[in-house]
Design brief:
InterPro entries: GalU_uridylyltTrfase_bac/arc (IPR005771), NTP_transferase_dom (IPR005835), Nucleotide-diphossugar_trans (IPR029044). It comes from candidate division WWE3 bacterium GW2011_GWE1_41_27. GO terms for molecular function: UTP:glucose-1-phosphate uridylyltransferase activity. The protein has 297 residues and is an alpha/beta fold. The chain has a single domain, classed as Spore Coat Polysaccharide Biosynthesis Protein SpsA, Chain A (Alpha-Beta Complex), CATH 3.90.550. 32% of the residues lie in helices and 22% in strands. The protein is built from ten helices and 13 strands. The strands form four sheets. It has a seven-stranded mixed beta sheet with strand order 5-4-1-6-11-8-12, sandwiched between helices. The chain has a two-stranded antiparallel ribbon with strand order 2-3. The chain has a two-stranded antiparallel sheet with strand order 7-13. A hairpin with a 2-residue loop joins strand 2 and strand 3. The protein is globular. It starts with 8 loop residues before the first strand and ends with a helix. The relative contact order is 0.16.
Length: 297
């Protein structure tokens, strides 16, 4: 029986332009926008590391060196913090480069746009017998057990070609996301029959939609290489996964235990910030009072 080794690598797609946040993203990637006191990308790395990941591969674009700087040491700041006795903050900033082994790779301009293109960028960095985590850089989660670990556990239990995270959303929002249809009478009840990108609610097969957490075998990279661009000339991940299903491979669309929160546009970014603030004992009570007062005024 084939032995499935530990999943130790995570690929984070962070090569977009963040146009919905302009001008804030003119000189920094959206993934560096703060959720309270840490950038979005930091939370993704934390989730991955807490799920057993040891190596983080960040797929970026030209001009995104700020992320590389963030996960590196900054001696001048560290010296200043030590000199002023701010040892708590010194410990925080010194711990960031030690979270994982970081690898940075630029997504080249000759590759098609799309949420599947980072897979082409990293194909030489993943062994052909290796599974890995794939994450969208603007999706966050709140859960007792990290969502990434939930998917890794399913991968090791079921041995599919791919596991994608899904969550139910209101039917009014289904058309914003990719929805899934499940295969009837499958050995595992969350086996995907088909995925559909941004269908109107009257055409969507379910209100379970995919978001940016996946565990992929190398089959997914091989399929990405052979998948043609689709709608709007983009390389869509859902087309890659549907191709695997058509080839007889198992793809699992796993509902998560927890909550997916997107930062993809200003309104949802603010909602996510509030959700995370409500997890903080040092913030939530005063914040609730402030919001209540604002509503009453």
């Amino acid at each position: 029986m084939k032995q499935y080794s530990k999943v130790t690598k995570a690929v984070i797609a962070a090569a977009g332009y963040g146009t919905r946040f302009l001008p804030a993203t003119k000189n920094q990637p959206k993934e560096m926008l703060p959720i309270i006191d840490k950038p979005i990308i930091h939370y993704l790395v934390e989730e991955a590391v807490n799920s057993g990941i040891e190596e983080i591969i960040l797929v970026t674009r030209a001009g995104n060196h700020i992320m590389e700087d963030y996960f590196d040491n900054r001696s001048e700041l560290e010296n200043e913090l030590e000199k002023n006795g701010k040892l708590k903050y010194l410990e925080i900033v010194q711990s960031i480069p030690q979270m994982a082994n970081f690898v940075y790779v630029r997504q080249k301009n000759h590759l098609p746009y799309g949420n599947g293109s980072p897979l082409l960028t990293v194909k030489e960095l993943i062994d052909n017998d290796e599974a890995f985590v794939y994450m969208f850089g603007d999706d966050l989660t709140l859960s007792d057990v990290p969502v990434t670990k939930q998917l890794i556990d399913v991968y090791h239990e079921q041995h599919p070609a791919a596991v994608l995270a899904v969550q139910e959303v209101p039917w009014s929002e289904v058309e914003r996301y990719g929805s899934v249809k499940y295969k009837e009478n499958a050995p595992y009840k969350y086996t995907m029959e088909r995925g559909y990108e941004k269908l109107p609610k009257d055409q969507a097969p379910s209100n379970k939609v995919q978001f940016g957490r996946f565990v992929f075998s190398y089959d997914v990279i091989e399929a990405a290489v052979n998948t043609a661009t689709g709608k709007d000339g983009e390389l869509w991940l859902i087309d890659i996964l549907n191709g695997l299903v058509d080839a007889g491979k198992t793809v699992i669309a796993q509902p998560i235990e927890g909550e997916w929160l997107t930062t993809g546009d200003p309104l949802r970014y603010l909602k996510t910030t509030l959700k995370f603030a409500m997890q903080r004992d040092d913030l939530k009570d005063e914040l609730k009072t402030f919001i209540k007062d604002e509503i009453m005024n």
